[in-house]
Amino acid sequence: MKVFLIGFMGAGKTTFGKRLAKRIDVPFFDLDHLIEAFTGGSVADYFAKYGEEKFRELEKQVLQTQELPDNFVLSTGGGAPCFHDNMQWMNANGKTIYLQLAPKAIAGRLENAKEERPLIKGLKGEELVSFIEERLAARESFYKQAQFIVDGLSVNPDAVVELLTRQW
C-alpha cells in the first residue's frame, strides 16, 4: 500500500505519517527529505537560490521518479499537490489522505518554526494567519481531490488504517 499524506505546512503530515507507517509496518518518507538527499542541500537553500518554480519542478521529479519500496507512507510538502500533475499522479499511484486543519490552528503550530520555512519566514500574528488563509484558499481545490479527508486535530492512525483497509 502506498499512502501519500497531503495538507498545508504545519498540518502534522510528518508526525502523523511516522505514526501511521509504524502502525502498518511500512517505511516512512518525507518528500522534503528525499529532495534534500537528491540535491545535497536544504529545501530552504534550494528555494532561496533557484526560486519556487524550479523547486516545484524538482519536487515533481523526485516525487514521481524516486525509487521507493512497494509499500510506504510519504508526507508531501504543502504545495506539492498543487503543482504540475502531482495530485493526479498520487491518486493514480496510491491512496491520498488530506490532513485538514483550520488556519488559526496551523498558525499556532507554525509560530515557532517559521525560520525554516521559506514561504512564512518573517510573518507573525494576524499576518501569518492571513497568509495561511489566502494560501489555503488557493490550494483547497487540490487538497480536496484526496481520496480521504481527515481532521488534522484528532487524526488517529488506527482509524485511518481501518478507513484504508475498508477501501482497499
What amount of the residues lies in strands? 5-15%
| CATH topology descriptor | Rossmann fold
Give the total of domains: 1
Low-confidence stretches: none
Number of strands: 5
CATH class placement: Alpha Beta
Distance between the termini: 9 Å
* Main beta sheet: 5 strands, parallel
| Class of secondary structure makeup | alpha/beta
Order of adjacent strands in the largest pleated sheet: 2-3-1-4-5
> CATH homologous superfamily - what is it?
P-loop containing nucleotide triphosphate hydrolases
By CATH, the architecture is named 3-Layer(aba) Sandwich
Helix content: 40-55%
Principal-axes shape call = globular
Radius of gyration: 15 Å
- The residue-averaged pLDDT reads 92
Q: Give the SSE string.
A: EHEHHEHEHHEH
Number of helices: 7
